[in-house]
Amino acid sequence: QDLEEQHDEL
Amino acid sequence: MNIFRLTGDLSHLAAIIILLLKIWKSRSCAGISGKSQILFAIVFTARYLDLLTSFISVYNTSMKVIYIGCAYATVYLIYAKFRATYDGNHDSFRVEFLVVPVGGLAVLINHTFSPLEILWTFSIYLESVAILPQLFMISKTGEAETITTHYLFCLGMYRTLYLFNWVWRFYFEGFFDMIAIVAGLVQTVLYCDFFYLYVTKVLKGKKLSLPA
């Protein structure tokens, strides 16, 4: 997983 | 996107709109905890700062904007427009007992030690307990209007459906986010008692009132 995570949920 | 996540989001949206309409139509915010609504506004603000940094989808962006907008509109209605109807005496939960530990926990336990990520984590932890002032208020007054219980039911269903979403995503995408899952479990457990009362009383046409 990326270090800077993308949160795709609300 | 799976069916649990979509229905969860829609349930969340329904909750927010039910509350706004209840206040707007009755011109009153009696029985509603302004403190819980402020906490939700903080939750959305802290979590959706990524609106400024990353784009996921039109759906994602529009829902975030709607949630934030409605949260602030609700706070405005309670503390400004219909302030005279706000039942401050019964809304006596001490929110600093939630915000301070949750802030500390977000700094200690997070995915990445960066400002945005800590704020995201803070919002996840805070959301899990943000309904407590509202539940506290109901336990204090011993009753809730039926429309308020519909609001709470939709709000509780939202995180419950997200739990199913996470099970789904774990099996089909290998995705899991421990912070969201643990906080989501806590959040759902807080609603269990209310769910029981909702099914046994409200759905049978009775008003939700607690024994004295």
UniProtKB/TrEMBL annotation, chain B:
Membrane topology qualifier: Multi-pass membrane protein
Pfam families noted in UniProt: ER_lumen_recept
Annotated TM spans: 65-82, 94-113, 119-138, 150-168, 174-199
Keyword Aminoacyl-tRNA synthetase found: no
The entry's keywords: Cytoplasmic vesicle, Endoplasmic reticulum, ER-Golgi transport, Membrane, Protein transport, Receptor, Transmembrane, Transmembrane helix, Transport
GO cellular component, one term: COPI-coated vesicle membrane
Source organism superkingdom: Eukaryota
GO biological process: protein retention in ER lumen; protein transport; vesicle-mediated transport
Subcellular localization: Cytoplasmic vesicle, COPI-coated vesicle membrane; Endoplasmic reticulum membrane; Golgi apparatus membrane
GO molecular-function terms, A-Z: ER retention sequence binding
Annotated PANTHER family: ER LUMEN PROTEIN RETAINING RECEPTOR
Family the UniProt entry places it in: Belongs to the ERD2 family.
Protein name per the record: ER lumen protein-retaining receptor
